[in-house]
Amino acid sequence: MNLDRIIAVRNSKTVYRDGGKTYKVFDSEFKKSDILNEALNQSIVEETGLDIPKLLEVTTLDGKWVIVSEYISGKTLDRLMQENPDKKDEYLEMFVDLQIKMQSMKAPGLRKLKDKMNQKISQADIDATTRYDLHTRLESMPKHNKLCHGDFNPSNIIVSDDGKPYIIDWSHATQGNASADVARTYLLFWLSGDIETAEKYLDLFCKKSDTAKQYIQKWLPIVAASQSVKGKPEERQFLLSWATVVDYE
Fold first, then answer.
1. What is the pLDDT of residues 171-189, one digit of tens each?
2. Spatial distance between the Cα atoms of 161 and 28, rounded to a whole number of angstroms
3. The pTM is what?
4. Is the dihedral of CA 57, 59, 61, 65 positive or negative?
5. N or C end: fewer C-beta atoms under 10 angstroms in the chain?
6. 167: enclosing H helix or E strand
């Protein structure tokens, strides 16, 4: 393998391209179980028939774990939105349609979203009363088993050269209530500072999926508390401020 072309640098991992393959190389502090779980998630989602890069191999290189996947030639949806601001609404439609298609899939081998969120809320830096309220709200939410990405944002969508969108990065994938995944995407737009797109996205998703906006808003404190545990320090305070608000208008 010739790993001299870097195509992405993320927290504690670097993605290289060599021919028709990508190599996601993890830093040595990454837990083996987390890396193998990501590969398992990707293989489970691949079996749904959804358009994602195919998992090819899990190996090691110079003592570091590597996930090898199919390379998709194209641009991220995030980059396309930046390069073509006049088409942003069109791209947002593609984004929402893709999320709805993803959430129509079932992947029974994945971890339950509710179990993961209960664990994260228990670890969140919030007072016991708020944690109790969030656990109670989570338990009261309808139990679904839809495919949830966990980090669904335009930088995790690659639009191939022939115009087909592919979803990448399945490390946070779970099965559960789709509206929790939507709340996460909404918060990601907020965290990026693009509040206008956050609101457009939520309105568009609710319209296309016939989901009440108030229902998704009920998930916001739960999702914010869950995401605050491993969030960047500069994002943690913002997320915790959402986690401590009981209701949204």
1. 999 999 999 999 999 999 9
2. 34
3. 0.93
4. positive
5. C
6. strand 165-167
